[in-house]
Amino acid sequence: MTDARLLRIWLLIAATAAALLLSSTIVSAAPTVLVKGRAVPIPGFPHTGNILGAGAAVEAEVKISGTEYGGFPPPLIGITVYLPRGVKIDTRDFPTCPTRVIAEEREPRKCPKGSSAGPIGTVEGVVAFGEERVEETAEIHSFFAPGGGLEFLVDGHTPVSLEIPTSSRLLQPQGGGGFGPEFTGPIPLVETVPGAADASTEKIDIKLGSAIRKHGRVYYYGTVPKSCPAGGFRVKAELTFAEGANLSDPVTVTVPFRVPCPPR
Description:
2 helices
């Protein structure tokens, strides 16, 4: 074998190894995301839940795992959810909480009666406590926002104190692209100790949806579609992460899934 041929073989091996290393780096940069969702009854309102054409709340669970950020998932900086086609969202009949109450005052108790979008949820993650990274569970308070969206206040107490306001806008209420209404919103980076690592989110449990009685009628914030396609309702979630806590270098993980049709 000539020296020139041997050199070409070594160059090919080196190029292949570099390509595999690059591919591995790209894959490992994105955490693993599991999303579950289902329609559930609204307490105090009969004939609601996983029923075609009925009012319902949505119970969602998000699990995030990864080691890209010091052994933990990179910070979550945005969530977009595409609901099933045919879902109806009521943006008119519910009281809303003024944006300043959540975003500036951070006083959920000042929100008007009836503006709560659901019971208190939870978020689990990892925060910096001194030089350590420790687990923390915080509460999620949710409210109906002016313009049809939602407002949230993440409230944590131990081992560190957190008050993180955020919001979610309602886009395409009538749906599009094979899906129904779209909700999207940013999540701010959470630096619990100056100069330390930002918080990492590992699990979110939340229930959203409500109903009110007005003038002898019942109004539902969300209504299940009147029909269900073969294979179940199509849903899609997009979670965006700050790779290395760098907002200019986001990584988006798309999770499409189907929710089974209601039993007949």
